[in-house]
Write a structure and sequence with these properties.
Layout (H helix, E strand, L loop, with lengths): L1 H14 L1 H28 L11 E6 L19 H10 L4 E13 L8 E8 L2 H5 L4 E4 L4 H6 L3 E5 H8 L8 E4 L2 E9 L23 E4 H6 L20 H5 L8 E4 L3 H20 L9 E5 H7 L5 H30 L2 H9 L4 H31 L8 H4 L6 H18 L1 H8 L3 H7 L1
Parallel strand pairs: 3-8, 5-7
Antiparallel strand pairs: 1-9, 1-10, 2-3, 2-6, 2-9, 4-7, 5-8, 6-7
């Protein structure tokens, strides 16, 4: 029967092609606008590590006092060197990662090649395991390498392609920042969006890091940070590198892995106790002020989802709703024009349920045609998405099979829902009145 109703619906659509075209265009433009903005919103607002986001926590300790804090007495978003090293030595979490941004010159093995700069991180060994960084070759360095301040590095697959043609380069040497490092691992493709672990430096939508070196060795070599540092009201004059390390400047993001809520509470208590110890020692002149937020809480706190993506999505959905309201009016006019046909069918024994099935199937056909048009408009619109969003945001949007299926499904489902009221009105037609008047 559904095939029969579909056939009836297609015949009905052909009777008034102008009205049909208006409905198809309304659905097509509405669903395309929604899907284009959704393609951006789903990337920037998704959980970047859903299997583990409730176990990874960003650590904050107030090391400067309320006069330099954000509204709500929020501590700096990163730690200074003194606190970061103290937490690493205490080792109160299952895993702990401290890191900061670096930009190092890379010397190609080819004598004819020119040096270039690669961005990455000076990090501790747990960084890779904690954040589930995939490896194509080799593995991360061990905690023993952290303790030994080893000259080891992990490079990305993209950098490995550039330096070694994609071959397994584990065990080979590479010159970074005029120093020689031994490659212990090559990462696979790893580019979580947003980059939840480095919101402090505003890197949430940046290109993937290309290299990683040991944090302790980077400190020994005075490798400068390439990212942000937050010194509050501290004077800018620095007498030596050692003085810089022990200033109250926040520049080292610090994350811990805590498998359970009980572990998180114990670690929060430890942070409070640590801050209280610093207060008793005279370093802090204020009450303990610490924060411990998991991935989603951290992203929400930092408002990582761009405001324009939320606004654009809301506007496009509103536009789609307006298109559906117009479709309801057009369907109502179309269905009520066929009151005589409905009366005859009812007089011949058709039930209201069969009337519903026929007209909803006709609406589904309109939705399918509108979805097909919406697909074409979505494909075209994706090419101009940079006109709406910043380049680093726009480049994240992509068209995949799931978006295509979603476009068709939303178009059909929304049109069928919109057709319920016109169909209900059509099913209320009284056969006797129609037969008498016709």
């Amino acid at each position: 029967m559904f095939a029969y109703y579909f056939q009836l619906g297609m015949r009905s659509l052909k009777r008034n092609p102008v009205l049909t075209a208006l409905m198809v265009m309304a659905i097509g433009f509405g669903v395309a606008a929604s899907m284009i903005t959704w393609s951006v919103f789903r990337v920037v607002s998704g959980d970047p590590i859903p299997w583990k986001s409730g176990q990874l926590y960003n650590v904050q300790i107030d090391n400067r006092g309320p006069q330099y804090n954000e509204p709500g007495n929020e501590p700096p978003e990163a730690l200074n060197y003194t606190d970061a090293m103290a937490l690493l030595r205490a080792h109160q979490a299952r895993r702990e990662a401290a890191f900061y941004d670096v930009a190092l010159s890379v010397l190609p093995n080819d004598a004819q090649g020119l040096p270039f700069t690669a961005d990455g991180y000076a990090a501790t060994a747990d960084f890779f395991t904690m954040f589930d960084v995939p490896f194509k070759y080799g593995a991360p360095w061990a905690r023993a390498d952290d303790d030994a301040h080893a000259a080891v590095t992990v490079i990305s697959d993209a950098l490995n392609q550039k330096l070694f043609g994609g071959a397994n380069s584990v065990g080979r040497d590479v010159t970074l920042g005029m120093r020689t490092y031994r490659i212990v691992g090559v990462t696979g493709h790893w580019d979580p969006k947003p980059r939840y672990y480095d919101v402090f430096d505003g890197m949430q939508f940046a290109d993937p890091p290309q290299l990683y070196v040991d944090l302790n060795r980077a400190i020994d070599l005075n490798i400068a940070q390439s990212g942000r540092n937050n010194c509050g009201g501290a004077p800018m004059h620095i007498a030596s590198d050692e003085e810089w390390l022990h200033r109250e400047c926040a520049w080292i993001p610090f994350w811990v892995e805590l498998p359970s809520p009980a572990d998180a509470q114990r670690y929060r208590d430890f942070l409070t106790s640590y801050a209280a110890d610093q207060q008793r020692a005279g370093r802090f002149q204020w009450a303990p002020n610490v924060r411990l937020r998991n991935v989603l809480q951290w992203l929400d706190f930092n408002k990582v989802v761009p405001t324009e993506s939320r606004i654009s999505l809301a506007v496009s959905i509103g536009f789609f709703v307006i298109c559906l309201v117009n479709t309801i009016g057009l369907l109502l006019a179309k269905f009520m024009q066929r009151s005589a046909e409905i009366g005859v069918r009812r007089a011949l024994g058709a039930t209201r349920r069969e009337v519903y099935a026929q007209f909803l199937m006709e609406a589904a056909a309109i939705g399918l045609a509108g979805g097909a048009l919406g697909l074409l408009l979505t494909i075209v619109g994706m090419q101009g998405i940079g006109l709406l969003f910043e380049p680093e945001i726009a480049q994240l949007a992509y068209l995949d099979f799931s978006l295509l299926i979603t476009t068709l499904a939303v178009a059909v489902f929304a049109t069928v829902i919109a057709a319920f009221y016109p169909t209900w009105r059509a099913a209320q037609v009284q056969p006797a009145w129609q037969l008498k008047s016709n």
